[in-house]
Amino acid sequence: MKIREGTLGIELRDLPLLTLCGVLGVTVNQACFVYALTNTGASDVAFLFATGPLITSILATAVGLERLGRRHWLGVLAGLTGIALIVGGRTGAGVGTDLLGAILAIAAVVSSSASALPIRHLLGRYSAWRILAYELGIGSLILVPFAVPSLASQDFGRVSPAAWTALAYTVVFTGVVANILYFTAIGRVGPSRASMFGYLQSVLAVAFAVILLGERVMPLQLVGGLIVIGSVILSRREKPLPGQRLLRKGDLFTDPPAGRLAAATGRVSRLRDRGRRRIPGP
To answer: How far is CA 232 from CA 53, 80, 113, 199, 271, in A?
Structure first.
């Protein structure tokens, strides 16, 4: 990132927000997610995680970050219905009753949704890359003391190459690439609309299960998938609020202040080349 942007620095006033993002988005979210899976079924966790767009929309509205129209709320509820059909449509899928696992799953969703709200503010001064670097760094450092006992007792010699490959894939694509795209989407359309695309995870999970594992698709799952896709399209068609700042294409790879400075410098150079005197040179 230093090579890409020239600096790793941030303003001291933004450190509390970045720390909050790291604690909620990494530390609390990952701890609750892992222990939720050990205390309840995967189907339960999948369905509860599908409440993310709904919780994000509620939080963003409650703090005054976004004002969402009827079309978005209809899309959120329709998508949640579609997820219920996808999860419940699997043969043998059932909803468990483990209260602790359900509470942990909901806590993971709330922490993830809450961490998306400060990111919208931070994107006005930093690139998605820089925000993610601090979020992952701070959140992971807080997790280290809790992970040391497990790491010390782990027999790494028994870890298969496939497991290392899966870990590398999770770090690079799930941890970095997916979050960079998500953060950029937050800057472009807001956290509520960006979170709507999370509904597609269940649709893609079923598709990959069919392609890679040879699983069969149940009729209810097909109906649920169509509903989910329709809900995302419905929400996507709602126009953002007037005056809402949207990230430009270059903001995906460029620090916003640096990008604006570079653009201004380029305009000055072009004016000088044309012999104009509106902006005097140094």
So the answer is: 11, 11, 18, 8, 45
